[in-house]
Each structure stands twice: as structure tokens, then as C-alpha cells.
Amino acid sequence: MKFTKMQGAGNDYVYVNCFEETVADPRQVAIQVSNRNFGIGSDGLILIMPSTTADVRMRMFNSDGSESEMCGNGIRCVAKYAFDHGIVSKKEITAETGAGILALRLIAGSDGKIAKVRVNMGPPRLARSEIPMRGDAAPQVVGEQLTILDRTFNITCASMGNPHCVIFVDDVAGFPVSTYGPLIENHELFPNRTNVEFVQIISRTEVRQRTWERGAGETLACGTGSSAVTAACVLNGLTEKRILNHLSGGDLEMEWAEDGNIYMTGPAVEVFSGEIML
Ligand SMILES: N[C@H](CCC[C@H](N)C(=O)O)C(=O)O
């Protein structure tokens, strides 16, 4: 199987061009290639596919083999790959995902290749049932209490096609993400599990995020998570609608715009290509 390794803000995936390759069992392949000791090493597998409704289609699998509806850092890399490898020739494209059809604007660097992508991530879905979450305490989950082990957190939840639970903390660098992350990911409140974002507010326009991803553990960045964080910051009155989010592997420029959509702008980088015997 031919593949290309790409990363966006350090969130790295193995990408396969399914205009040319066929991946019969993507769940199994995701587990195999993601392994950092016995495989290529990545947070998961992303298939770049033909679409009947958009310029390109993305399917995304976590390193545990589970499929997600959407991947924000991944979609930027899909757009870069599609342009740099001649699948598309325009700089305004559409992509079919499990979260619907998204519009992307491709921004080239000085070498003519795509360096950055701005993605219309759509509106945050805030209804409890859309995340999805059990219980009916409130129709939206903004600052609801959740006790895990010795601590009670205020959680704010949003779906960007995939589920997110956002928690504000005072010191994100020192926060025990791998202790609380998996317990929240697999909590009975979330029937489809959830991604978890731990966020420190720096100012009205700047935040710092660490991410515990459903199906992958702690990653260096999460674009859908950053989008959910943008909504959560505004809903809790903590920031303006435009913020710079510092993630562990890089920065994302975020905006919850007047049209109700969240816009994410960030880097997309091709690292290397190769072939793996499956
Ligand atoms: N890192 C990705 C999200 C992966 C989400 C996945 N872990 C899930 O199960 O929803 C992003 O940039 O949006």
C-alpha cells in the first residue's frame, strides 16, 4: 500500500490516495500503520477518496481502528494533498465528511504548494442529543458538573460532527490529562465516547489546549476539538469570538463568525511518502 505521512499542528496521520489505491479493511490497517513501534507511526489513518457530491471525500480512522465522522487537522492535509498532487486545481474546494460537506480555502506558500488551509467547520451542534449525551438535565451542556475520581469539573459539550467535552483548567501544562482523559472519554454520559479538551484561558483572545482524543489518547492537536473549544469559550463568557489557540504541536486561528459557522485556519505539512507491506 502506497501512503503519505502528513501532519497538521503535529496531529499526524497516514494518508492513502484512494483515487489509486484500495484499502479493503481500513479499521485493521489503521491499527497496524498507526503503531509507532511496529508500524509507520501515526494518530490514525485517513483515506482520500472520490466523491459524488464534493471535490474530494475523507474517511478517518483512529489508531484504535474506530472511525470518526470528522477530523479538522486531517481535512486541511486532505486539501493540501488534493491540490499538490493534482486531484483538484482550484483553491476553493469542497470536501465530503461524516459531518457533511465542508468548504475549504487553500492558501499557497512561496513554493506554490499549499501551506495553510481555512476550513468552514460548520456550526457547533450544542443540543445534548446531538453530541450525543445521556440524561436530560439541560438541553445544552454548558458548565454542567461532572465528578471524576476526586475532582468535579464544569463541562461544556459540543459536536463538530464528532463529540467533544471541553474543560477549563488553571494550569494545562501540569494537568494530568492521561488520568482524567480516558475516564471522561469512556464515561457512561457519552454513548459514543467523546474527545476531551483541557483548556487554559490566557486572555480574551488566546487559549492553550491539550487534547485527549477518543480512540487515540493524547495527541498534539485536534482541529474539531479547537472548534468546540472556541464555542465553549464564548458560551462561558471567557473569550471573544476570534481566538488564537496554542495546541501542543502548533497554533490554530479560530473564529466563531456571525454566520454561525466556526472557521479554522492552520498549517498542513507533507512529511514523507512510502510503501508498506500489509
Ligand atoms: N484530531 C482530529 C479529530 C479526531 C477525532 C477522533 N479522535 C474522534 O474519534 O472523533 C481533529 O483534528 O479534529
UniProtKB/TrEMBL annotation:
Principal location listed in the UniProt entry: cytoplasm
Any GO MF annotation of the entry: diaminopimelate epimerase activity
Annotated keywords: Amino-acid biosynthesis, Cytoplasm, Isomerase, Lysine biosynthesis
Quaternary data: Homodimer.
Localization of this protein: Cytoplasm
Record has Acetylation as a keyword: no
Record function comment: Catalyzes the stereoinversion of LL-2,6-diaminopimelate (L,L-DAP) to meso-diaminopimelate (meso-DAP), a precursor of L-lysine and an essential component of the bacterial peptidoglycan.
Protein name: Diaminopimelate epimerase
One Gene Ontology term, aspect cellular component: cytosol
Pathway recorded for this protein: Amino-acid biosynthesis; L-lysine biosynthesis via DAP pathway; DL-2,6-diaminopimelate from LL-2,6-diaminopimelate: step 1/1
Reactions it catalyzes: (2S,6S)-2,6-diaminopimelate = meso-2,6-diaminopimelate
SUPFAM superfamilies xref list: Diaminopimelate epimerase-like
